[in-house]
Each structure stands twice: as C-alpha cells, then as structure tokens.
Records
---
Amino acid sequence: MSAPARILIVTSGPLARNPRVVKEASTLGAAGYDVTVLTPRNHAASEPFDAALCAAAPFCRLPVDLIPGFGLSAWRAFWRLMRHRLARVAMRRFRVPSLHALGPANVILRAARAQRADLTIVHNEVPHGIGLRLLAEGRRVAADIEDWHSEDLLPDDRLGRPLELLRRQERALLQEAAYTSTTSEVLSAALHSQYGGRPPQVITNSFPLQPAPPPRTSARPLEYVWFSQTIGPGRGLETFFAAWKQAAGNARVTLIGEVAASYRQALLAPLEPAQQARIKFTGYISPTELPARLARADVGLALERREPRSRGLTITNKILQYFNAGLAVLATDTAGQCEAMREAGQPGLLVSSNDTAGFAAALTRLENDRPLVAGGQHAARAAAERRYCWEREAPRLLALVAEALGPARRS
C-alpha cells in the first residue's frame, strides 16, 4: 500500500485565530492525508490556544519561530523584525515593493521548501507569494483567497502596502494554481472578473454543526452579540451604537474580543450611563468555547461595511457562526451578507451600513416583535443544517484536493 499523499498548508498567523486553516487541515488529516501546517509563531498569547487545538488534531503543526522564548534567540528575533520594518519603510518612502513589507517571507519560504509535499495550499498574502515561488520551482500549489488582500483594509492601513505586488500574486494564482478557493459566490465572481483565469471554488467560512441551541424565553431582555478577535474601528460598531442610543428598550449587548481601553472609552462615551451598564465586554474567547457562548444570546450582529471591497464581498465567519448557533441576525447589506441572508430565507433583518435611522428602526422592531426574532432563529438554524455547516463544505474541499493531486495520489 502506498504512503498517503503529503499536504503542506502554509498560513501566516496563529491557528487559534485562523479557523479556516484548522478546518481544512482537520478535514484532510481525517481523510487520510499526511498533513503538515506551517505557521509562524509570532503571538505568544495565542500559543496555549494553538497547543490545545493541535493536541489531538489529525495534522502536524510546524511552527517557524519569530519571537524569542520558543527556541529563537532575542538577536535573531530582532533581526527578523527589523528586516520587516525596513521593508515597510522602503515601501512607504521609496515605493519599493517587497513581500518582506508584509512579513518574514524568506524564513517561511525556506521552511516550506524543506517539506516534500505533493500539494501545498497557501493562505494569506505572504504565503501567496511563497506559493508562487514554489510554483516556479515545479511544485503543485493551490491557494485559498479568504480575503482579497489588494482590496482590503482601511485607507490609512493601505499605505506602505505593496498593492501592485499583491495584484500580480492574485492574478498569477488564479491562472496558474491547481485550484483556488474563496468564501462567497460574489467574491469569486469579482476575482474572476478582475483577473480572468478560473473562477475560485466557493468553500464558505461555515463551521461544524454545533448542538441545537437551548430554548430561549422572551421573558428576559433581548441580548445582541458581536464577536471578533479584536474590537476596533471600521467594523460597524460606531453606527450600531449611534442607532442603539436612539432605540427605546432594555436590550443588552455582549461584545467578544480584545479591545483597547481607549477605543472602549470612545465607544461608550456617547451613551447614557444606563445604556453603558447594559454592555458587556468579555475579552477574547477561544474557538472551542465560542459556539456555546453565542448560543446564549438572541440576535447576532453582522455589521460589515461595503468598503473595503474585500469586506463587502466576503461572507465572514461571523454571520455563519450566528446561523449555526440559531441566532436571529441583524446584518448590514453588503454583497456577501445579502448572499447569505437570501440563501437562509428569513433569518433576520438587513439594514444599510450607514443608515443610523434605519438601524434604530430595526432595533426597535426586533425588541417589540419577539415572534419575528424567534422566526429568524429558526430560519438561521435551518440554513446552517441545510447549507452553511462544515459537513456540507468538507466534501467540496476533498474533491478539489483529490482532483489537484491526480488519481495516483488521492487518499
């Protein structure tokens, strides 16, 4: 019997903050492939979460150390950080494009070259550049385009980014990779329209189906929930709280994620003390604990903005986690979220991302119409069971990988 095909997955951050990679690696490992996930170790606080995720995982994690304390000397960590910073300065001041302006490309490329993989799957912008290097060397490479990196981030954050380099990477991957994948039909169509090649295959950001949520009662105040790794500007929260200030009622809001004290203060300052008292910040919650915490709420807030284009076209983890937890959804009308809400039926309400008055009207309606909320919860959970769960996506991933490997190397 031949050895299983070897698959290398290259990403650019902690696994606890990259659930798409974990789902991919777990699915392929469980299917019998020999899977290694190559990831930089660059965030010490995430290390316990990553270790827990990998303890019983059907894949091997290969960390590349970028910070001291895990086997890398302080001097080498300093030099790797300085190379990245110098590349960013060169990009900002002299418009010299470099993959190093985005992260430590060389050290990850060396580690990837050392792995004898039958297929390498690259995630995120630095690994995308590494994937093109491997393609030029004759390796078989596939690419996941979860975010449209050349069309991502707020304007100030785009300064110093090698946008033309990112566009060349995206074009080349769509035309040369064994396959590409992305998160929504509208994002796939936009990438294909921009670059040609083959349209990326859609594998949504859905999650394994969690247990059915417990019965909820309308006797308690309505609870809204919003989550991300980081609570910060540009995520729609400012518009939401401006509307929440206008809406009558006694609903509560739970915000999950890390938040800077200055932003927390700015977010709360316009609100009355009684409203501030109904807002709870929980801090970061691990991926394993998050589904159960979401299921305790009533309505999930999907507050994405139409700009940048990447954010407006994708279907994020957020709205699909709400479907899975059986939450009604209050969503902004980005193209990606309209796609998900349309597929789900009637899981809640859509509002314009810049319409504070419309937001306030929607909040008042949800608070005063608990049957509407209950109906949205039922539709959301049904959509997760029917379409938006990982059990529906895993066969698509396995088929793509099997085709990319060819008949001789399928697991």
Note: The longest strand covers residues 223-231.
---
Amino acid sequence: MTVPSRAEVASRLELPEELGPWLDALARLDPPSGGVRLPRGAEAVERFSQLGLVEPDLSAIVAALPGPERQPELCWLLERAAHQVRSAIGRWDAMAPMPSLPDHLGVAGRCFWVFVFLAVAGDVRRWHSERGIAGDVTRDTLADLGRHVARYRRRNGSTGLDSQWWLAIHFRGALYALGRLQFNPYRLRTGMAGPLFWYEGEAAAARGPGFQPGDPVLGVHIPAGTSLDPAACDESFAMAGPFFRRHFPAHAGRIATCTSWLLDEQLADHLPATSNIVRFQRRFELVPGAREDDGGVFQFVFDRPPGSLDELPQETALERALVSHVRAGGHWRLRTGWLEI
C-alpha cells in the first residue's frame, strides 16, 4: 500500500489552510512501527466501553473506525497524531495542537480524536501500572472520554468530540479521577498553569511555602454527572494527598486549588445553606478576583448558551437560580479558591 504524502492528505481530505502547521508537525514525525492497529467488531465495542462510551454513540463510532485500505489519508493523520500523544505520556507540560477536523468528513472526522485516544489507551494503562496506580483509578480516569462524547451528543444531536484538548491531559498521565473529583498536579503560576487568580507580592509571601510561584499544587476539577455529595467529596479529598505523595512525590503539594463558577459566593444567595454546592464552595478560601462567565455556566449546566432565558429549563433549584439571577441583571463569575490537602 502506497503511503500518501502530506500534500495528498491535505488535498484528498480537503483540509483547510489553517491546519497546515499541524500537518507540517505531523509530517515530521515517524509513524509507529507497524502502524496503528485499531480493533474491530466485538473487540472494538469492549475497548470503547472500557473508555466509558455508551449507545447510541458506541455503535456509531465502531462503524466509523477508519481502515488503511478505505481511508489511507485519515489513517496517515491517525498514526502520526497517536504517535504524538503517545510520546507525551508522562510529559505533563507537553502541549501540541489538537484541531478538530472539518465537518464534511462526517462522523469519522468528528470522532478522529476518539480513535487517537483508543490507539494510545493501552500505553497509558501500562504507564499507570508501572507506577503502581490502581486499576480502578485508571478506569475511572480514562472513562471521562465517554462522558465528553455523551455531552457532545447532548449539545449537537450527533456523535463526536470537541474537547480533545482537555482529554489529552488524562491520556498523557497528568490528571486522575479519585472518586467524585479529578485532580491534576501543576506548578503554581508557571507557564500556562493556573489558577485564574492568585495572591500577589506580600499577600503571597505572607502565606509561606506552598503558595509561591513554582510550588507544587493540585488542581481540582468537578466533572459533570452525579451531585456533589459531601461524603463523596470528603472521600476524594482524603484520597488526593496520599495518592500524589505515593505515586508522584515531587508533585505532592500542600494545597489544592479550584477555579470554577461553583465557587461564586453569589450562589449562596439563591440556594439553601444545606445544598451540596454551597457546602462544596465553603470548603475553599477564596482568592481575590472574579471574571464574569454567564455563557460558560449555561454551557456547563444546560449544555448550550441560550438564545433566550425563556428557553432554558427551570426544573431544579440550581436552574431556577441561574436564570433568575441573570434575568435580574446579575452575572455569574469564575472564582478561585484553595484548601489544604
């Protein structure tokens, strides 16, 4: 089989010019020896199920799996993109463009990065295992892929994935699901690492070690899904410190930070003090600074930014609070908080 050139891939797939730098970077990579073997049939169903995919997306993605005979250009991209992701496992600061493919490529294009993550899942599992990470942590971490595919369907009414940039963190070993919450280690205020807001000058110095630029900290993330049950959150925070001290001691810090609309203290004006959200945000000490983000909040809760507030559901106390606050002229904000681990 003749391997297509970079120019042939771009031409035959009708890729836009803005993807040129990404194609150039892929062209400089050697594909994996023997290519990338993707499972078929029942094996594919099983392996995708292990990554959290469910129907109706599961069958659609299995049916769209590319093959070198039928789709050599897509496989050219897949082999090199998988090589790029695989080579970043364990390199937590590695960042590379992960663009979405154009709509005219259909479900195979929309699911391109799903195929890439499937191709490298075994490598991530081995990397976890070599470091003694429990299988259930690996399973729960990588199963976030299925959650994001399901959210794509809710937002768009079709099968696909557009959050590959976020899931790449999971698949290079830089984020872990520990019970209800997810955690990623990072160095405070270095490069692209957060948090969105932090102490400056004397305010940071007064807090001592653990709060200074370059200090190791944990980022806290709240995946959509089940409620923020206090007992489940207690369990997650109790797991986090020992987990990172055991498996990644150089990255085990004193504190964990969280940047989220869930920490907007205005929520306490609309929800009862006993609500899980209010109880969650009270775990954190807030850092000065806020950024308005109504669109992001609506996207997270309602899976879409509304054309009109009237079209949003009002079935839960949270949904009613979010809408009534904005209807009254208010705005929801991103806040950053921290707690000791």
Note: The CA atoms of residues 33 and 79 lie 10 Å apart.
---
Amino acid sequence: MRDPYEVLGIRAGASEAEIKRAYKDLVRKYHPDQYAGNPLSSLAEEKLKEINEAYDSLMKNKGGYTRGSDGDTGRDYNPYFAQVRQYILSGNIHEAERILNTIGTRSAEWYFLKGHLELKKGNYHQGYENIKTAVQMDPGNMEYQQTLRNLMNQNTRAGQVYRTNNPSSAADDICKICTCLYAADCCCECMGSDLIACC
C-alpha cells in the first residue's frame, strides 16, 4: 500500500482533524455517484478504495475511530458509514448493504444505518428494531432518537387510522372475511370454476 499520508495528500504527522478533512474532501471528489455512466467510474472506485484504506490505516495508528472532537456529529467515525449514507440517499440499497455487511463491528451507527436499509426494503419491523438498538447503544444521539420517535408516531397514526376505519371487533372482521370468501366461491362456481375446493 502507498504511504497513506501521500494518498490523502497531507503532510506526515498531520492531526486527526486534518486527516478527517482531507478524507472527506477526497470522498466527495471520487464518490461513485460523481462518475455514474462515466468511463472513469472504475478508476474512481479504485481510488476511493485506496483512500478508505489510507484513512483506516492512519486512524487506527491514532488509536482507532474516535468520537468527533473537530465538530463531527459525535458518532464513532468510520469512513464506510459515510459511503453507506450516500448510497442510501441515492437509492443504491444493494451497494449500501454490501458495504454494511463487510463492517465487523456492530456499533450504534451500524444498527442505525441497517435500520434505514430495512425500512427502504419494506421490512418495517426489522428496521424499527435496528434503530431501537441504535438508540439503546447510544441514547445521547439525537438523530437516532428523532428517527425512532418518528417511526413510533407513524406506527401510532397508522393504528389510529385502522381503528377509526375498522370499529368492529376482530371476531366481526373474521366473520366478514369468511362471508366474502364464501360469496366469492359461490360466484366462481356459477362461472364453472372453484375458488375454495372444500366448499
């Protein structure tokens, strides 16, 4: 691997803040979304991989990912999480999930992003559970808390709409379903077919 300082274009011994700043600038410059449909996209992807490896190497030498002291959001900073967020925003769920699955440490940020992926895929329960785990792991993170609150409010509103539109009891609902199925079966039999074979 090339000298990580050289890859990031910074002087040897640069501070953590300088490393993060250089990394973020380069990620923006070489992000795959910038090269969509461009013949240079594979080169940009390789460059981004090299940038990520250089960043990882430097941050590990400085004692691992740290909570942001330079105005960062306060999350455990991992460069891949920034990529995952970009992919989620651009709708590239497959790539976001691929990157998340390569991250070994399941931090609060990991669960938060995994929750967003599950929600995008339509897996509401799994998404909710992952975001709830993120809040439990990092209860001081306002982004996680707000997202969980929004999900809980949506769930409550959906339940209220259901109860308002369906005031009958569960037993009445089952009776209505059976009646509809029986009527549909009768109609099918009149047409020479059979919806429910046992009736």
Note: Residues 142-165 form the longest helix (24 residues).
